[in-house]
Target: DUF87 domain-containing protein
Amino acid sequence: MSASIIIGEDRRGSPVRVDIEELLATRLLVQGNSGSGKSHLLRRLLEESAPLVQQVVIDPEGDFVTLSEPFGHIVVDGADYGTAEITRLAARIRQHRASVILALDGLEIEAQMRCAATFLNALFDAPREQWYPALVVVDEAQMFAPAAAGDVTDEVRRLSLSAMTNLMCRGRKRGLAGVIATQRLAKLAKNVAAEASNFLMGRTFLDIDMQRAADLLGMERRQAEEIRDLDRGHFLGLGPAISRRSVSVKIGGVRTKARSIGSGLMPLPESSGDELHAILHAAPTAEELAAEGAPIPHFLSEPKPSDVLISEIANFALAPLAGSEEESDDELGPDLFKIAAVKAPPAVPPAEAIVIMSEIMSDMVEEPGCTFQPLSSLFQDYTVRCRMKRIGAHVGDVTQFRRRFAMAVAGIMDPTDPQWAELLALSTRVPDDLLAPFLVMARAALDGAPCPDDEALAVAYGTRSPGRIRRLLEHLEKNELIVVKNDYAGRRAIGIPHLGVTTAAV
Model:
């Protein structure tokens, strides 16, 4: 499966792609004045990459919550939760790799900055085993990383700026790839903007912003006027994830729309002044009186308890890859491409899902060098394969995957098979990182097969150090999980005392 997406077309009509894997390592900065199509660009990027990578959106205007229905993003309304709940939700989001939109439109600017900082810090502070790749999109980034003091307190500004700096400067090693969008580069803190290696620059008019954009794109000062002349929805792109040379991009269409009202003209009412006066001062209707007691409309009809959101996060699955094609209308005009409609994946019975997962595991362990790959990379590969088979809801967490993968390395593809029940019960006493070589030895003993040599155990363990295998055997023997026997000819056999079986001596 390709890790690149099409975001638009260049002047010749050729598609312009963004390499998502490269983007995760190099980050993205988007600039454009209000009305330049900046939010539309972010929406296109999010929609096209939804099946490929976890997404976290910091949404100060609540424009991106419409992604939740077709793509399954979980909406967290920042106005409904306190600091402790936001921290806990962010930790669960990191753990379960849920794609989430943090909607902040119900808060004042200072509360937005504080909530976003708390949320980003919790994502950043996740334990090492949860450093999964994720796109962290921050719209109106100049609000959260201002270049100068504004109307908020210094304490809130420092808190928010620190969180944004961590995201852009240190987030890559934790799997967090910042995608920040701003109306003006001059208003965005330089140490935050400077960490991006990819740029998409839209229309802007102020000289200082044009000059900074031209410098980032490697353009000469006299070419900066080109940025002023860009049409709405057109951007100049540069960076390792986009193009090695500056390229003009017309952003493609989208499947969802923002909740904000468009800026087009509408016919004025034809009523006379007297008629309008009578309408405005008329007695309230029954519907108006009933509406006065109704809650304020929101994308979420009412605040969800945090435990309900945590349950949704735990059961999250990335959006499926599109299956059928249809034209889409968008706010910038006709779409450039035929884009696929997202359909909910059919439910797969658990018994059938187990068979499919066994096949996926079998394919993975047959790939050379698979045991030497980082656990996070293996888990990401596994989840993508499961989503392709429409069983993303059955994936489980990384701890379950680690033990299941160790079983697959030992040739145990169906852990529900009764013949493995006693062995798997014993394996609960074995640390997760030692499980694969232990199961390889135990499987050989159950089959009466020759004792695995140090090289076979090293491959199962994912190491090239003979010393580690010696220490591994000593540790398992010390904990009475195995017994190592060496005969007078120097041949080795390994017994599993709890199962009463022994490998053949080799």
Observations:
- Confidence is low (pLDDT under 50) at residues 294-301, 323-345.
- The longest strand covers residues 243-251.
- Residues 154-170 form the longest helix (17 residues).
